Amino acid sequence: MSDALLSVSGLSVNYGHIEAVRDIDLSLQAGRVTTLVGANGAGKSTTLLALSGLIPKAAGRVMFDGHDVTALPPHKLVAAGVVQVAEGRATLTTLTVRENLELGAYTRRDGAAARASDLERMFALFPRLKERENGLAGNLSGGEQQMLAIGRALMARPRVLLLDEPSMGLAPIVVQGIFRTLREINAQGLTIFLVEQNVRQALKIAEQAYVLENGRVVLHGRGRDLLDEPRVQEAYLGG
Ligand SMILES: Nc1ncnc2c1ncn2[C@@H]1O[C@H](COP(=O)(O)OP(=O)(O)OP(=O)(O)O)[C@@H](O)[C@H]1O
Ligand SMILES: [Mg+2]
Q1: Are 7 and 46 part of one and the same domain?
Q2: Among 44, 47, 51, 195, which is best to mutate for testing ligand 1, by the most ligand atoms less than 8 A from CB?
Q3: pLDDT digit string (tens) for 38-74?
Q4: Which ligand is in closest contact with the Cα of 38?
Q5: Which whole number is the average pLDDT over 187-212?
Q6: Which of 120, 134, 206, 215 could form a disulfide with 43 if both were Cys (CB 3.0 to 4.6 A apart)?
Q7: Do residues 151 and 125 lie in contact, with contact meaning Cβ atoms separated by under 8 Å?
Q8: Residues with CB under 6 A from ligand 1
Q9: What is the pLDDT of residue 88?
C-alpha cells in the first residue's frame, strides 16, 4: 500500500528452537492507529522487539518511510523516529518527572527552545504530570508512570509510536484515560502501533488490526469490523 509509513514483511523470530513468530506481514498507515492483539504468549512483544531491532530476526524485512531499516540498530531507529514507549514500571524512579521527560529528548539535535516547548506540550497533555513535575517518578501511581513513559517517548519526537500493552495492570478507569490520550495524540497526526491484550479497547481505537495466534497472523481487518467478528468475540471478548 502506498501510504504505509512502516511495514514488516515475512518476519520470523526464533528463541533457540522455539519459533515464536512465523512469517508475519504488517503495515502501519501514516497517521493511523494499528493494533496487534492476541493472547498470552502469542508473540506480540517478540514482534515489537524484533521490529525495534532489540532482538534478532530469523527472517523478514522492515521498511520505514521508503527506506530499508531491517538492519538498523535500535538507537538509529529511534533517531529516525521509530520510538517504543518503555514499560510503565521502567520509568527512572530516582529521577523527577521533569528529568524523565527531558531524558526522552536526548537523541534530538534541535535546540533547547524546541525541547522546552515540547515539555510544556507534555504538561498540557498530562496535567497530572505537571502537578508532580518535581516529584520523584518512583512515587507516581501505576497510571501516572504509564503516562510519564508515554510522555518521555513523545519527547523524542517520534514519527511512529510503539506501545506494548500500556493498559497492563491498570484499573479500568485508568485504562480509559490512557486510551483517551492515545486517541488524542493520534488526532494530532501521530502514527501509532499498539500491542494489546485488552482486545476490546484496542479494536475500538484502531483503524487496522491484526490478530496473532501462536506466532501467526490469523485475522486482519478494520478494528471496528473485527469487534463484530464471531471468531474474535468467542476467543477474546467473552462470547
Ligand atoms: N526470551 C525468551 N526466550 C525463550 N522463549 C521466549 C522468550 N520470550 C518469549 N518467549 C516465548 O515466545 C513466545 C511469544 O512470547 P511473547 O512474549 O512475544 O508473547 P506476548 O504475545 O507478548 O505475550 P504476553 O501477552 O504475555 O506479553 C511465547 O511462547 C514465549 O514463551
Ligand atoms: Mg508481551
Answers
A1: yes
A2: 44
A3: 999 999 999 999 999 999 999 999 999 999 999 999 9
A4: 1
A5: 96
A6: 215
A7: yes
A8: 15, 18, 20, 38, 40-46, 197
A9: 61
Minimal-distance CA residue to ligand 1 atom 1: 15
Ligand 1, atom 9, lies closest to the CA of 46
Q: Are 152 and 103 in contact (CB under 8 A)?
A: yes
Tell me the per-residue pLDDT of 72-124, one tens digit each, with 9 for 90 and over.
999 999 999 999 998 766 667 889 999 999 998 877 778 888 888 999 999 99
Question: Residue whose CA is closest, atom 29 of ligand 1?
Answer: 41
Whether pLDDT at 230 is above 60: yes
Contact in structure between 83 and 99 (CB atoms under 8 Å): no
- List the grid coordinates of 211: 490478530
* Domain range enclosing 132: 86-157
CATH of the domain at 31: 3.40.50.300
Q: Which three cell numbers stand for residue 44?
A: 506480540
Share of the chain above pLDDT 70, in %: 97
- Is there a single domain that holds both residue 29 and residue 97? no
Torsion, Cα of 43, 48, 52, 56 (10° steps): 0
Q: Which residues surround ligand 2, an ion (CB under 5 A)?
A: 44-45
